Amino acid sequence: MPLSFANDIAPIFAPFYAAMIWRFDLRDYDQVKQNATLIDTFISADPDFPRMPPANYGPPISGQDIATFKEWIAQGCPP
Questions:
Q1: pLDDT tens per residue, range 15-60
Q2: Can you tell me whether residue 1 is helix, strand or coil?
Q3: CB 78 within 8 A of CB 3
Q4: By CB count within 10 A, which of 1, 32, 35, 53 is most buried?
Q5: Has residue 79 been placed in a domain?
Q6: Interatomic CA distance for residues 28 and 25, integer angstroms
Q7: Model pTM?
Q8: Which domain holds residue 56?
Q9: How far apart are CA 10 and CA 7, in angstroms?
């Protein structure tokens, strides 16, 4: 079954909306789609980039949620 932004991706980022609003709105499909590769870089364990969410905003996004986000990208970022 295809993933969707509204059902599968937006809930992953819901706890971090306020902390990330200065960069782009994680509730906005178009902004997340446009920045999907950047978001993937920040949520993945790449030591060359700061972690998202920052440590003072709670634990990192789970491995399962990261895998879901990567799959959503692979599926063409469906709405």
A1: 877 766 667 788 899 999 999 998 898 888 766 666 777 677 777 7
A2: coil
A3: yes
A4: 32
A5: no
A6: 5
A7: 0.84
A8: 5-74
A9: 7
- 8 A C-beta contact, residue 31 and residue 24: yes
In-domain check, residue 39: yes
Residue 7 and residue 1 in contact, taking contact as beta carbons nearer than 8 Å = no
Angle between helix 63-74 and 36-43 (nearest 10): 160
d(CA 64, CA 68): 6
Q: 51 in a domain, yes or no?
A: yes
- Side chain identity at 61, as an amino acid letter? I
DSSP string, 5-72: IIIIIHHHHGGGHHHHTTT--TT-HHHHHHTHHHHHHHHTT-TTS--SS-GGG-SPPPHHHHHHHHHH
CA nearest 77: which of 25, 2, 20? 2
Q: Which two tokens stand for residue 13?
A: 């980022």
CA distance 74 to 15: 24
